[in-house]
Specification:
alpha+beta, 7-stranded mixed β-sheet, 5-stranded antiparallel β-sheet, globular
Length: about 750
C-alpha cells in the first residue's frame, strides 16, 4: 500500500505547477544555495538549474527531477514565505535608501576551459549624487528643539535611512554625543533622538527597547544585525568610561574587569564576550528563542576606527560620522569590529552555519544540527599540514628551529617582484603604474573553494575543478614559450616574473601550490604530475555572495563620487582625477570597503595575538569555522594568476614587460605619463584579456606616474638595482611605513 501511495505522490508531483522563475531563484538564494548545490542534489548539470530559473527562456524540469525539484521548492517556500510589503499606521515613512539596480557586469579575469565558468553578476548603477559635507551645526538640535524618537529630517543624498522593517525604522546605528547637558543619538538619514539613559546599562536597555535600531538579515537562514552604538568622547565621560586607554589597556585591548562600568553591567545581568570591554565591545544576555538581546559598542577615541582604513572618521562630528558608518552599514553590513572582523562576519552572515528546519511530525521549526548547504558549518576543521603556518599544533612534533621550504609549506602570497630596467626602457621618459581595482575581491569571484575537511591522496591526476593543495614540480614551465589562448607564443622570459612564486623566482623543484596556480601551468601549455595532494571533495563557490555584496558597495559609492562603471577610458581617467575631494566622507567609505576585502581574507589565516601563546599550542582563532588558510591561499593564488595572465597577453601583443609588481600594482616604462600612452586601445576597445581601464573589480586605474630618471636615482640612492618601484609609484615617496595591507 505504501508503494502505491508513493506512486500517487510522484504522479501528482510530476504534474503540479511550479513557482515562477523569479520565485524559484528567490527561494534558492534565501537558503544560501548555489546553482551547483541544487544541481548536485538533483543529479543534473548546473546549466540545467540555471535554465529552470531563467526568465528569458524558462525550461521546465521533467521526470524524477521535477518531483525532487518540486519537493525542494515546497520545503523552501515553507521556510521563506514570499515577503508582504510592510505598511505603517501613524508613523512617518522612512527616507528612501539609494537602490542598486542591474547594469553591466564587471570584467572577470579571462578564464580558461579548465576553470569554473563565471556567470555575470549585476553591477549597480549610480546612486543619488553625493551631498557636500554638512557643517555639524546644521544637524545638531538645541535643547529646546531636540527631536523625539521617530522624528526625521530630510536625508541628504548619499545617506541611507532605516529600512522598511518597523523594528529598525531608525536605521542600523547611532552616534551618541552630549551637548549642553543633553544626551543625543545621531542616526542615519539626519535623524536625532533624545537619549534618557543615565548609565551604560540603561543605555543598552534603551537601545534594545526604544531606539528601533538594527538591520535586517542578509540571508534567509541568517539573523538581523545587532544595533551599533558609537560613543563620542563626551558620551564616554557621561557614562563613566575613560576618554582614552592607558598603554597597559591598549596592550590588553580592554579596560580592567574591575572597572566600575563593567561592574554596573554585571549587576544588571549583562555579559561581555571573551574579548572584554574594548574598542568594539559586545554587551548581551543569552538569547531566549529568537529574541536576541545584544548591542555592539564602538568607541572611536579608543582607536576602534583605525586611521589606516577609516581615515579621519574618528575625528568627524557625530552627524557626519553617523553618515559615514550608515552608508557602510547599508551597503556592506553593520560594523562588528575592525574592517577585517567585519569582512569575516560578512562571510558568515551570507552563509549562516545552521538554519531552521520544519519537524515533519510536529510541524514546528527548529534549528538544524547539520550545517547549511554551502556554508562552512559551526565546527572548525583542521587544515592540512602543508597549509599550517609555523607554530600550528599540527607541527608541534617537528624539531625545534626547523625551517620549512616550498616542499613542506604552501606559500601562496601576493607579488613583490622587481627587475632592473633594460637599456631600451631607460631611454623612455616615464614609469606608469596601474592598479587593479578590488583585485582580491575579483580573485574570489567564481572561485571554487573547500567547504569541509581535506583528504590526503597520492597519485591523483590533477583536477582544476577540485580545490586543494598540490605537491607538484613546475620548474619545467618555460615562460619564453607559452600558450596564449590556443596559440603558442614566444616571449622574453627573463623579463617576466614566474607566476608560481611571490618573488617571481622560477621554481627549482617540487613545491606546494593551490589549485589555481597548478591550473595556470596547464593553461600555459605544460603538463603537471602531482606527487601528492590534500583535496576537499566538499566544495562550492562560498565567496560569490561576499564578492557581490562588496562589489556593489564599492561601485555604488564610487558612482556617488562621480566615477561610473560605463565611462570611456578618457572620461574614466578624468573622473578619477581628484575624486577623493568631491566628498571626503564617502571617500572614507571607499577606503573601508577595500580594507574589508583584504582584512576579511587575512582573517582566514589569523595568527596568535599575544595571550601567552607558545608554539605548538592552539590559539583562539583556530576555534572558528572561518579559520581557513586554504581559502585565503586559493584567493591569493587566483589573484596573482589573474594579474600574470594580463601581463602575458599584454607582452605577447605589445612586446612590453613590467618592471615592478607589488600585490595588485604593476609598473611599466612608457613614452607618455598616461596609461593610454602604452595600453593598446583600438577604437576605444582594449586588448581582450589584457588591461582595461575602468572602475569594476578586475579592471585597472592609474596608480601614479614618475620619471624613469626618478626610478634610476632612487635605486642608486639605496644601492638596490631591484628596489620595487611599485611601492612608491603613487607619489614618489620611498618609505617602509605600514599602510595596513
Amino acid at each position: 500500500m505504501s508503494e502505491m501511495f508513493d506512486a500517487v505522490d510522484a504522479l501528482v508531483a510530476s504534474r503540479s505547477a511550479l513557482p515562477s522563475a523569479e520565485e524559484r531563484k528567490r527561494l534558492r538564494v534565501a537558503h544560501g544555495l548555489t546553482l551547483d548545490d541544487v544541481a548536485g542534489a538533483l543529479g543534473v548539470r548546473r546549466a540545467t538549474v540555471s535554465a529552470w530559473e531563467s526568465t528569458k527562456k524558462l525550461t521546465e524540469p521533467r521526470g524524477p527531477e521535477r518531483e525532487a525539484y518540486a519537493r525542494l521548492l515546497k520545503q523552501l517556500a515553507e521556510l521563506y514565505p514570499a515577503p508582504v510589503p510592510a505598511t505603517f499606521t501613524g508613523a512617518p515613512a522612512p527616507a528612501e535608501v539609494p537602490t542598486l539596480s542591474t547594469g553591466p557586469a564587471p570584467e572577470a579575469a579571462v578564464m580558461t576551459a579548465t576553470e569554473n565558468t563565471q556567470t555575470p553578476a549585476p553591477a549597480p548603477v549610480a546612486a543619488a549624487p553625493a551631498a557636500a559635507p554638512r557643517p555639524a551645526s546644521t544637524t545638531r538640535p538645541t535643547s529646546s528643539t531636540s527631536r523625539r524618537p521617530g522624528a526625521k529630517k530630510a536625508a541628504p543624498a548619499g545617506t541611507p535611512a532605516g529600512g522598511t522593517d518597523p523594528r529598525f525604522e531608525n536605521g542600523p546605528l547611532a552616534v551618541v554625543d552630549v551637548e549642553d547637558g543633553k544626551v543625543l543619538a545621531y542616526c542615519t538619514g539626519g535623524l536625532v533622538l533624545d537619549v534618557p539613559a543615565k548609565s551604560l546599562p540603561s543605555l543598552v536597555d534603551w537601545t534594545l527597547k526604544e531606539a528601533k535600531l538594527g538591520q535586517p538579515k542578509l540571508s534567509g537562514p541568517g539573523r538581523p544585525a545587532d544595533p551599533l552604538i558609537v560613543l563620542t568622547e563626551a558620551a564616554c565621560e557621561r557614562y563613566g568610561l575613560p576618554v582614552s586607554l592607558t598603554a597597559e589597556e591598549k596592550d590588553a585591548g580592554r579596560i580592567p574587569e574591575d572597572h566600575k562600568v563593567v561592574k554596573q553591567l554585571v549587576r544588571a545581568d549583562w555579559k561581555l564576550t571573551k574579548r572584554g570591554f574594548g574598542p568594539w565591545a559586545r554587551i548581551y544576555r543569552p538569547a531566549k528563542g529568537s529574541d536576541r538581546q545584544c548591542v555592539q559598542l564602538c568607541i572611536p577615541s579608543w582607536n576602534a576606527l583605525d586611521a589606516r582604513f577609516w581615515g579621519d572618521a574618528a575625528q568627524l562630528p557625530p552627524a557626519e560620522l553617523a553618515r559615514v558608518l550608515g552608508v557602510y552599514a547599508s551597503r556592506v553590513m553593520t560594523p562588528r569590529g575592525s574592517t577585517a572582523v567585519t569582512g569575516l562576519e560578512l562571510m558568515t552572515a551570507l552563509h549562516p552555519p545552521t538554519h531552521a528546519v520544519r519537524d515533519e511530525e510536529t510541524g514546528a521549526l527548529r534549528q538544524a544540527e547539520t550545517k547549511t548547504p554551502g556554508s562552512l558549518g559551526k565546527d572548525p576543521v583542521d587544515c592540512a599540514p602543508c597549509e599550517a603556518p609555523d607554530g600550528h599544533p599540527l607541527l608541534k612534533d617537528l624539531p625545534r628551529f626547523t625551517v620549512r621550504g616550498p616542499a613542506d609549506k604552501l606559500f601562496e602570497e601576493a607579488y613583490d617582484w622587481a627587475r632592473p630596467m633594460t637599456d631600451a626602457e631607460c631611454t623612455l621618459r616615464y614609469l606608469v603604474g596601474l592598479d587593479v581595482n578590488m583585485a582580491f575581491a575579483a580573485g574570489a569571484n567564481g572561485l571554487n573553494v573547500g567547504l569541509g575537511e581535506p583528504t590526503h591522496v597520492k597519485g591523483l591526476a590533477f583536477d582544476p575543478k577540485l580545490p586543494g593543495s598540490w605537491l607538484v614540480d613546475l620548474s619545467h614551465v618555460d615562460l619564453s614559450k607559452v600558450k596564449v589562448g590556443k596559440e603558442w607564443v614566444e616571449l622574453d622570459g627573463s623579463l617576466l616574473p614566474s607566476p608560481f612564486t611571490p618573488k617571481g623566482d622560477r621554481p627549482t623543484g617540487p613545491a606546494w601550490y593551490a589549485t589555481p596556480t597548478v591550473a595556470y601551468a596547464q593553461e600555459l601549455g605544460y603538463d603537471v604530475a602531482p606527487i601528492e595532494a590534500w583535496v576537499r571533495y566538499e566544495n562550492g563557490r562560498y565567496l560569490d555572495g561576499w564578492y557581490a555584496r562588496l562589489r556593489d558597495a564599492y561601485l555604488a559609492t564610487m558612482a556617488d563620487l562621480g566615477v561610473d562603471a560605463d565611462l570611456s577610458p578618457e572620461d574614466f581617467l578624468a573622473a578619477m582625477d581628484g575624486y577623493k575631494e568631491r566628498d571626503p566622507e564617502l571617500t572614507i567609505v571607499v577606503s573601508a570597503i577595500k580594507a574589508t576585502v583584504k582584512g576579511g581574507l587575512g582573517k582566514l589565516r589569523e595568527r596568535p595575538r599575544g595571550e601567552g601563546w607558545r608554539p605548538g599550542e592552539r590559539w583562539r582563532a583556530l576555534e572558528r569555522p572561518t579559520w581557513r588558510p586554504d581559502i585565503r591561499a586559493a584567493v591569493i593564488s587566483r589573484t596573482r594568476i589573474n594579474l600574470h595572465r594580463k601581463i602575458v597577453k599584454h607582452a605577447a601583443f605589445t612586446g612590453q614587460y613590467p618592471v615592478a609588481i607589488l600585490s595588485d600594482c604593476v609598473v611599466y616604462a612608457a613614452n607618455g605619463p598616461s596609461p593610454l600612452d602604452f595600453l593598446p586601445y583600438r577604437e576605444g576597445k582594449p586588448l581582450p584579456g589584457g588591461f582595461k581601464l575602468g572602475i569594476n573589480p578586475g579592471l585597472v586605474k592609474h596608480e601614479g606616474t614618475q620619471t624613469v630618471l626618478w626610478g634610476e636615482e632612487v635605486r642608486d640612492k639605496f644601492n638596490a638595482p631591484e628596489l620595487n618601484l611599485a611601492r612608491s609609484i603613487k607619489d614618489g615617496t620611498v618609505t617602509d611605513a605600514d599602510n595596513g595591507e
